[in-house]
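Table S4 entry, Replicative DNA helicase.
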Amino acid sequence: MAETKRTTRVPKAAKTKPVDEYGHLQPQAPELEEAVLGALMIEK
């Protein structure tokens, strides 16, 4: 008899991005954000 191949599923909770206690998403590319915010501050 052929064996059935079982696949595992990753729960959705494991795929979510880190969110702090206030519901804000943590920076994913801090260097890019620093460059953009720095450019905006210089512009003003």
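The longest helix spans residues 30-43.
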